[in-house]
Each structure stands twice: as structure tokens, then as C-alpha cells.
Write a structure and sequence with these properties.
Keywords: Coiled coil, DNA-binding, Membrane, Transcription, Transcription regulation, Transmembrane, Transmembrane helix. It holds the Pfam family HTH_18. With 736 residues, the chain is of the alpha+beta class. The chain is built from 26 helices and 17 strands.
């Protein structure tokens, strides 16, 4: 393939593309940065003005609160109270000197507030005015000392009749000792009743108030307006504003008073001129970026074009070797190969998700009590299962089919089962999940948001399944169903009931002519899988799940209305499990065994149950106390991984150490702390229990060995004998 030069159109397009890629973001960023800076300055200025307006409002509110506090304190003064009395007790108890002291104290307090022109206490019933200058009749005071017009005097007279906690009136003009003033009257009743006998009347002097605002208001504002019910009662212009600011745009910030009905509007000038740095900075960046961007684009284009040229050379060689005609055919073939590999990978992912979903459904059948991880898995596979729904498990078995070892026959039966399940469940408008339990057994989990299956409906559905499967494949399966249960744990309850019915039918069929054979009658409900979960949760101190398991066992067995002897046997089995856990955790179980034995001898089932549950709680608390949160979290993940992957042949301490980035000894110690037993004993227990189920389903020993994680059949047989006490093939021959 010929060498590319700078005159190449591909190179030029690459160069222009890099130039655009580099410069356009810089220009856009510069403009946006300029805009952001302008808006940030405006925001900061507005926040500053808002804080300043709040400060001004707070300073005025503080003064108003001082007026309130003055009124409250004055109402508790003895001389005020005694002047209220309809007697001359005030004149009797206070001599002239004391009265002068009271008037001086009253005047000093008014002067200390800094915004009051003067203040008086009016006694409406006595028509008396107490002032810093002495006591006056109301009319004399209003005409000679503090002169108000007729309208204002009438407003005062009307306001004095009602209780006023803190009332600020509209500004009025007056003369105080012939000195003209503009004041804001403030009324505060000194008695909490209608028609109070004493009312404090204060007069805010607007000139004093203006001086106070100038001292505390700062200099940033243009104008301060105080309104009462949207009526302006006071206005202060910034003296330094001048005529130049009047032409500038302004905006106001409204702050409601927290001490009165006033509304403060503080006006600030708007700066319409942008800082030149906001323009010069981005322009300078753009000017510098253009030549630098062009140089960088040229270098990037050259670097990018070099591997492209090498690739085209290699493609040209491949084209000649493959005789495909052109490099485009080679590229097309490469893409086809990638698409094929992608499809294969997608299929592998789907197979994995299908297997994971089947594994989750199997755990639900066995009664795995949900934790956060199980909820995540339910959501991941979009099953939509919740604890508020209703469930029923149905078992479809082909054990009666003697040709079940034939792959074509079993495939035909599987297709027939899938078609029958879809047809029947669609007809009855029920949701379902169909999956394989063993080689010859299928399971259906039927779910609904509402109760279903009443009046023999489930038996009718099972009969329809049998008929449709027979019509499709010619084999009659055994179809059994459990009761409709609520909650996710109900799936396990329903499944075990259906499986019990299946085992009874299979036992009866296999011992049809053996009169001495019998199926052990177990009245109580205590599944092996629940026992394993109870042991695991005891060992990790999971009290909530343990309590849930015990509650479900109790509810299910109470529904069976067991005799006391059977209930006592069940509780004894539960207690034996807990004592076994205590021993595995190296905890002395003797005292617990003795105390339980005393309750068992007393034949008190409730006491036995309560003590058994108490021992479980003590174990969980002991385990949680002895393990740090970090150990519990790591140990829980370790245990969960083993529970999910124990059938893999490569599960080992070394593999776990690599996965969890720990040493082999650290993994062994942590596993022992979490479960109470060593790793290989725990792994053997899981594998042997699964192997027993598979052997009961008539799977070959070689097949079972590989399915539970043993690559060597001899190793499996030796482990099985050590665990169960008999050989695997002998166990498979035992009656079900």
C-alpha cells in the first residue's frame, strides 16, 4: 500500500477534525466561563445584599423587641399595678421623693432605647396619664404637653379600649412642648384583659429612628422603606447616593419583620457594567488557544495517522494472502468474526443467567430465608416476588417413565411440560416459573397478588397438566401440588407438601407387593434445608433470620395441630441442633442441656419452646459480640461464596484466598470463626447432602460425583463413606 503524505485527504480531514475538537470546546468553555463568572458575581452580590438586608431588619426588630421587653418589665412594676387600683394606695405608699425616682427611672429607660421621643402610661378608667413630667389628666396632657389633632386623639381613645399586645400605629404629627415632631405611636397593654386599666404608649421619633438606622444600616443600600400592611410608614434614602445613582437600575429585597407586622424593603443599586477581566480573560485564552490548538491538532493527526497507515499496510498483506480482492472485504470478514464471537458470548451470558435463575428458584423451594442479597437477585431476574404475594408449588415427576434415561424421550417430555404449563397457566391467568429440580422432576412456582386455588382449583389445574402432557408426549407424569401459602417462605412450605405427596406415591408404587414395607410417619415439619440455614445463621449471629426461621417452623407446626408428644420431639430436635452449634463454637453446652431437660421432664411445651428460642438468641449475641463488624462482613461474603459454588471442583482454601485477597491461613481462620467448623468439613457437608438427594433420584455414582464437585470418583466414594457410614451405591438402594 502506498505511503500517505501530507497531501492525503484522510490526513487533512483528521487534522481539521482534531482542530475542531480542540478549539470548539475551548471557545465554548471560555464563553461559558465568562457567563458563569458574571452570574457568580451577581449571585455573590445578591447574597451579600440579602445578608445586609437581613442585618438591617434584625437591627430594627431588636429595637422593637426591646420595646416589647420594656412593656413586659413595666407591667410587673409595683407602682404601675398600684396606680391601676381604684384607690389612692399609690399616693399613700409613694412619697414625693419616690415618685421623682420612678419618673426619672422611666425617663432614663426611654432615653436608653435611643429611638423614642417620649413615652407615657395611660390609665383609661382614671383618665390619668403618667409621664416623665408628672401625672396629668388625659385631656390636659393631649392639649398642653403632647398636642395631637382631633383625629389622632380619637384613634388613641378607641385603641385604649381593646387589649393590645404590641400594636404599632401609623405615623402622626404632634407637638411636644411646642416642638414639632413626626412620631410612630406604639401601644402595649400592661394588663391581659379587654379594657385594660393601664396601657403603655410609646412614641418612636423618626429623627431618632433615622439616626439609629444610619449608624447600624451600613452604606450599601440606596433606600430603606418600612411598610405596614403594604402602606409605607417610613423611608430612608442613602445620603451618599447622590443624583447619579437615581438613574441607575435598582432592585429591592423584602424582609418580613419577626417582631411586628412591618415589612422591610431594602433597595440596592444594580451594577450593569461587566468587569473587564470577565471579557479580557476569555478573549486572551481564545487568542492563545488558536495557534496552540493548530499545532496540537497537527501532532495528534500525525500520531493518529501512523498506526492507521500501518494497519492499512497489514490489511493489504492479508488481502493478498487471502486473495479476498480488497482490504474492505477483510474488514468485513473481521467484523463478521467479531459479531459471531459476540453472539457466542451473549449466548454464554444467557446460559449463565438461566442457570443462576434456576439456582435462585431452587433456593426458594428449599426455603432460603431472604436477605438483602436475595432481594437483589429477585430484582435482577425481574421475578417480581414479594412477601405480600401468594404462592403454590407444583412437582411434575417422570419417575414412572421407564424410558427416562433416554435423552430424546426426556426432551420430548420437557417440551410437553413447557407447553402444558404455558397453556394451563395462561388459561387460569396465573404467573409461573418452570424449572428443573432433578433429571426426572420439574417444579412450578405459581404466584399471584391475590389468594387463589380455592374450591379444589389447584387439583383441577394439576389434572389439566397431566392430561395435556399425556396428549403431547404419551407419558403420564405424577403431578402433585402443595397448599397455597403467603410470603416467600410459603414457596418452601408448599413445595415440601407436594414433595411429600410425591414420595408417598413413589414409595407405594415401588413397594406395591411388599406388605412389610412402610414409610416412616413424620408428623412435624422440620425440613433439612431449614435446619442447615438455622445452623448457618446461628454461627454468624444473625438473630433476625434465626427468629424468622423459628417463627415459620412454629406457625407451620401449629397449623398441623400436632400432639404434645410430637411438638416436644420437634422442640427437642431444635434444641439438639443448637447444642451441637454450641459445641462446635467451643462453648460449654452442659448447663443449657440440663435446663432444657428439666423443662422437658415438666412436659411444658411452651416453656421448652421459649427456652430453646432463648438459647438461640444467646448464641447469636455471643457470636456477634465475639466478631468485629469487619470480620462479620468478610466472613459473610466468604460463606455466601461457598454456599453458591460448593459444587465447583476448584473450590479450595487457595482459591478463596486468591478471590478475597487473603492468605490461606487467614481464610481458614476466618471461616472457622464464622461457621464454627473448618472449611473442608463444611464443604463436605454441603456436597454430601446434595449427593444424597441425587442418589435418591437414581443418578449414577459417577454422575453424582462430578455434579457435586469431585473430579475423582474414588475420592467421592471415600468421602461419602466417611460422612454417611455406607457406600454411595448401597445408599442408593435404600428404600425412600
Amino acid at each position: 500500500m502506498r505511503n500517505r503524505s501530507f497531501s492525503s485527504s484522510t490526513f487533512r480531514k483528521t487534522f481539521l477534525s482534531y482542530t475542531a475538537i480542540l478549539l470548539i470546546p475551548i471557545i465554548v468553555f471560555s464563553v461559558l466561563n465568562m457567563y458563569r463568572n458574571v452570574m457568580e458575581q451577581k449571585r455573590e452580590l445578591h447574597e451579600k445584599h440579602a445578608v445586609d438586608a437581613k442585618r438591617i431588619a434584625d437591627s430594627v426588630d431588636n429595637k422593637l423587641n426591646e420595646l416589647k421587653n420594656f412593656g413586659k418589665a413595666l407591667g410587673e412594676e409595683s407602682w404601675v399595678v398600684k396606680l391601676m387600683a381604684n384607690s389612692n394606695v399609690y399616693d399613700q405608699e409613694f412619697d414625693l421623693t419616690r415618685k421623682l425616682e420612678i419618673r426619672n427611672s422611666f425617663q432614663n429607660t426611654i432615653d436608653g432605647l435611643n429611638i423614642l421621643s417620649f413615652g407615657v402610661v395611660i390609665y383609661p378608667e382614671k383618665k390619668l396619664v403618667f409621664s416623665p413630667w408628672g401625672e396629668y389628666a388625659v385631656d390636659d396632657f393631649m392639649l398642653s404637653v403632647a398636642e395631637f389633632d382631633e383625629k389622632t386623639r380619637l384613634q388613641f381613645a378607641e385603641a385604649l379600649r381593646d387589649y393590645a399586645y404590641f400594636t404599632i400605629m401609623q405615623p402622626v404629627n404632634m407637638k411636644l412642648w411646642d416642638d414639632q415632631k413626626r412620631v410612630i405611636p406604639v401601644l402595649q397593654s400592661l394588663e391581659v384583659v379587654n379594657n385594660p386599666r393601664a396601657v403603655l404608649l410609646l412614641f418612636i421619633d423618626q429623627s431618632y429612628f433615622t439616626n439609629y438606622l444610619k449608624r447600624s444600616g451600613g452604606s450599601d443600600y440606596s433606600e430603606i422603606v418600612i411598610s405596614d400592611q403594604e402602606k409605607p410608614i417610613y423611608r430612608l434614602m442613602q445620603p451618599a447616593a447622590g443624583n447619579s445613582q437615581e438613574a441607575d437600575a435598582t432592585y429591592g429585597i423584602d424582609v418580613p419583620s419577626r417582631a411586628s407586622n412591618w415589612q422591610y424593603t431594602v433597595t440596592y443599586p444594580v451594577n450593569t457594567l461587566l468587569d473587564m477581566q470577565n471579557l479580557l480573560g476569555p478573549l486572551l485564552v481564545i487568542l492563545i488557544s488558536v495557534p496552540l490548538g493548530a499545532v496540537a491538532a497537527f501532532l495528534l493527526a500525525k500520531i493518529s495517522y501512523r498506526p492507521l497507515a500501518a494497519l492499512l499496510r497489514k490489511l493489504s498483506v492479508a488481502v493478498r494472502n487471502d486473495d479476498t480482492g480488497s482490504e474492505y472485504n477483510l474488514i468485513e470478514k473481521s467484523f463478521d468474526r467479531l459479531m459471531t464471537e459476540n453472539d457466542r458470548l451473549q449466548q454464554a451470558v444467557q446460559d449463565y443467567e438461566s442457570a443462576a435463575k434456576s439456582n435462585l428458584l431452587l433456593r426458594l423451594l428449599k426455603g432460603y430465608f431472604t436477605d438483602e442479597q436475595h432481594w437483589n437477585e429477585l430484582n435482577k431476574f425481574r421475578l417480581g416476588y414479594t412477601d405480600e404475594m401468594f404462592y403454590c408449588a407444583m412437582v411434575i415427576s417422570f419417575h414412572a417413565n421407564h424410558a427416562r434415561d433416554d435423552a430424546d424421550t426426556m426432551r420430548k417430555s420437557e417440551i410437553a411440560t413447557i407447553m402444558a404449563a404455558d397453556s394451563v397457566m395462561t388459561r387460569h391467568k396465573l404467573r409461573y416459573e418452570l424449572f428443573e429440580v432433578t433429571n426426572a422432576d420439574k417444579a412450578l412456582i405459581i404466584s399471584s397478588n391475590q389468594p387463589f386455588g380455592g374450591d379444589g382449583a389447584m387439583a383441577h389445574i394439576a389434572s389439566e397438566m397431566v392430561v395435556q402432557i399425556m396428549e403431547a408426549c404419551g407419558f403420564q407424569p405424577d403431578v402433585f401440588h402443595g397448599a397455597v401459602e403467603s410470603g416467600l417462605v410459603g414457596i418452601s412450605k408448599s413445595y415440601y407438601a407436594a414433595n411429600e405427596s410425591l414420595q408417598v406415591a413413589l414409595f407405594a408404587r415401588s413397594h406395591l407387593h411388599d406388605k412389610e414395607a412402610y414409610l416412616p410417619d413424620v408428623e412435624y415439619y422440620y425440613p433439612t434445608d431449614w435446619e442447615v440455614q438455622m445452623i448457618n445463621n446461628l454461627k454468624v449471629g444473625n438473630l433476625d433470620t434465626l427468629t424468622h426461621i423459628l417463627d415459620e417452623i412454629g406457625v407451620e407446626n401449629r397449623k398441623r395441630q400436632l400432639p404434645e408428644a410430637s411438638m416436644a420431639k420437634l422442640i427437642t430436635l431444635l434444641m439438639e441442633t443448637m447444642l451441637r452449634v454450641l459445641r462446635e463454637l467451643n462453648i460449654d453446652a452442659g448447663i443449657y442441656a440440663k435446663q432444657f431437660e428439666n423443662r422437658r421432664k415438666a412436659e411444658n411445651v411452651d416453656a421448652m419452646w421459649g427456652y430453646m428460642a432463648e438459647v438461640g438468641m444467646l448464641i447469636c449475641e455471643r457470636v456477634r459480640y465475639s466478631n468485629t463488624p469487619l470480620t462479620m462482613e468478610a466472613g459473610g461474603k466468604l460463606l455466601q461464596y461457598v454456599n453458591d459454588n460448593y459444587t465447583a471442583s476448584d473450590v479450595s482454601l487457595k482459591k478463596l484466598a486468591e478471590l478475597f485477597q487473603m492468605s490461606v491461613s487467614g481464610v481458614s481462620k476466618l471461616f472457622k470463626e464464622v461457621t464454627g467448623i473448618n472449611f473442608y468439613d463444611y464443604l463436605c457437608r454441603l456436597r454430601m447432602e446434595t449427593a444424597k438427594e441425587l442418589l435418591r433420584d437414581k443418578n449414577s455414582v459417577d454422575d453424582v460425583a462430578h455434579r457435586v464437585g469431585y473430579e475423582n470418583v474414588y475420592s467421592f466414594k471415600r468421602a461419602f463413606v466417611r460422612y454417611e457410614g455406607i457406600k454411595p451405591d448401597e445408599y442408593a438402594q435404600l428404600p425412600l
